[in-house]
Amino acid sequence: MFIAMNRFRVARGSETDFEQMWLNREVHVRSVPGFQSFHLLRGPENEDHVLYASHTVWASKAAFEDWTRSEAFRLAHKDAGQGSTRSLYLGPPQFEGFEVLQTVERA
Fold it and tell me: Among 44, 52, 66, 77, which residue's CB has the most CB atoms within a 10 Å radius?
């Protein structure tokens, strides 16, 4: 299993625009082989930004890497960092990828 996360520092006052952009976007990942789940996370509030993270769970690192080379990925990211969305962020998103070593589930 592989978890891919992007952390976004969203400028204070832009939280609603950022959330609506994500909540109303067309989803292209549902049918991608190896995709398991997606979560949009809202984190701590700081003086100048609110931290958000996109969190996807994949069957394997290879499945995630295949997604990054797919047409579905290009469609999902075609407007990233363009025009009015650029003003929502304090810097570019920060990618973090993790290979899962252990999973503990509810009994």
Answer: 52
